[in-house]
Each structure stands twice: as C-alpha cells, then as structure tokens.
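step=encode ok
step=design start
structure_in=
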C-alpha cells in the first residue's frame, strides 16, 4: 500500500490495516496531500473517483472527519473521544470529506440504498453536527453508478494525471482543428477524421475541449461529443 505523508494520516487509515479482512481500494488523486485516498468497499472507491474528478472540489480526504455523536462535537482523533463507564462515546467517521474552491466544506457518506433507512437516525444526527460546524452532509449510493459511468470516471482520472500532460496537449491540438470544422461530432467519426484514440477523447473531456453525457457510453455508434469551449460543467455530477 502507498504511504501517507507525515501528519496526513486520517482518523481511520483503511489503507494501512493489517487485519482488515478485505482489501482497501486506492484512488490516486492530486486533491489529497498524500497523492491518494482509500475506500473500504468498491462503492466507496467509485464515490472517491467521482470526488477526485468533479469540478469545483480542490481538496479531498478519506476517513478524516470524526463526530462524537453523544456530545455532538468533532474530534481530531479516535483517542480524543470521551469515555464513560469504560466505554468510548458513540461515534461516526465519514467515508470522505472535501473542500471546494469557494471554501465550502462537506462530508460524503457511501451507503448502499438498501441500508439507508437502517442508518437514517445516525446520519441525521451527523448532518446536524456538521451543519453546526458549517459543513454539509451528502449520502451517495450505488444509484446511477453504472459500469459505463464507472469506466468513464476511471479514464477521466487517468486523463487528468500530470504524467499525461504531453499526450493531452497533442490530442487537444488535433481536437481544436477538428472542432474548427464543426462543433458536434459522432465520436466514431471524430476519431476517424482526426486520427484520435479513445484516450484522446478523454483528454478532450478532461480539459474542457469536449463535452458529453458521461453517464452514457461514449463510443457506441450513436454517441456524440461536442465543443465545450473551455467549460467543465459536464464534470459536475452531484449537487454538493
């Protein structure tokens, strides 16, 4: 497993556990000081992918916000939780948290839809405490996370990597020439006309050259992409 930077360990480091009984899911992201975030499930991993790409988010953490549910306060470490009768106070540790470019902060809980009712009371209390500290609370489920959408998120994350900047620039130059001829293309025709690969299409989408519905297949016979004119609005997936 990759190592966290000094003083950047989360409240619960799921990437470091020796006897966790299941693997951790690592998502590389420049939005975290350590260069990655980790999830305990494939669902959490998919949500971290989304949060690593969604425009407007500048910083992202995993398992870094801990709430003392009994005293309705935030604590920095599990060791800071008060004890009563030898028992540690009831707590909630958020799956992920983020900060936006405008300073807004929030927490995201990853939970299968079938378990929402079971955890509704705890989530409502967590939201109340977070609101008191000026933070929002959002629950993300498996809804809308189709295999196609997950694959698109994975490829978008690769396209935003610093190591891909040269390839991105070459692709963008080709895309600019094609878009000067017409602003909307069937993806297959654009690839053929401009000599582009699937990866080049994702470079265009990641850098505001192209836009498309990223919850749909990008490479079917009827898939379209169009000029984005620098806008990254197509990379807003959730209202946070």
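sequence_out=
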């Amino acid at each position: 497993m990759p190592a966290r930077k000094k003083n950047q360990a989360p409240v619960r480091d799921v990437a470091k556990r020796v006897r966790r009984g299941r693997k951790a899911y690592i998502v590389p992201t420049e939005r975290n000081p350590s260069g990655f975030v980790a999830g305990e499930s494939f669902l959490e991993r998919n949500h971290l992918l989304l949060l690593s790409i969604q425009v407007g988010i500048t910083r992202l953490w995993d398992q870094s916000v801990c709430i003392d549910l009994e005293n309705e306060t935030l604590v920095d470490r599990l060791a800071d939780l008060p004890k009563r009768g030898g028992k540690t106070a009831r707590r909630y540790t958020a799956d992920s948290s983020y900060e936006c470019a405008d300073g807004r902060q929030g927490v995201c809980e990853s939970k299968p839809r079938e378990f929402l009712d079971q955890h509704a009371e705890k989530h409502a209390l967590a939201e109340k405490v977070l609101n008191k500290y000026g933070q929002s609370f959002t629950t993300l489920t498996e809804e809308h996370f189709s295999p196609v959408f997950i694959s698109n998120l994975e490829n978008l994350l690769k396209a935003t990597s610093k190591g891909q900047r040269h390839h991105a620039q070459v692709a963008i130059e080709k895309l600019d020439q094609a878009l000067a001829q017409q602003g909307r293309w069937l993806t297959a025709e654009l690839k053929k006309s401009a000599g582009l690969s699937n990866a080049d299409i994702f470079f265009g989408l990641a850098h505001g050259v192209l836009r498309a519905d990223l919850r749909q297949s990008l490479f079917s016979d009827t898939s379209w992409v169009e000029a984005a004119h620098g806008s990254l609005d197509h990379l807003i997936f959730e209202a946070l």
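step=design ok
step=annotate ok -> The radius of gyration is 20 Å.
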